[in-house]
Amino acid sequence: MKIVWKRKKNATDETSPNPNPNLPFFERVKEEELIGEDEKNGVGGEDPPPDSGDHDQEKKLAETLESEGVRLAEGGLYNEALRKWEAAIMLTPEKAKLHEQKAQVLLEIGDAWSSLKAAARATELDPLWAEAWITLGRAQLNYGEPNIAMESFDKALAIKPNHEEALIDRETASHLVKRRKQSHSTINSRYEIRDKW
Question: Do 107 and 139 contact (CB within 8 A), yes or no?
Fold first, then answer.
């Protein structure tokens, strides 16, 4: 596909003075020179064949960034790890593991909402991965949604029925739901409005 921007030529186009010759964006370039440069640089003309080498390089770079992120997170450098994983996600956005790792780090730094979004994306990409559902459940707990977190832990347990962490986290969520119900019933009974006129 070849795209050429055509300019209208007027009499002053070639001879108009340059307001500041030291600034490159004011230089006048002939249309033929632009077309020639584009073709030299591979812009215009036929579409180049897809290069699998570029894709392989991106994949390798994403793997390197992922492993650097893991190393940084293990060392407690969460913000640096997050930057590495975000760069890797830009290269391989469909990799659920990157989103799940990002969600874990976001939980560590206290960003529950962003963690929730990243974990939800991991479960969308790989709905049969129990660890992604566990991370989503933990993010939901930290966001203050124990009822929804229980559902996520249940999905993890449906995939891996005896997953120890999922069982413990589900019990924690269940306990929080019970405490919330008790506190709501206590508040409602204390402030009950009665008509005794």
Answer: yes
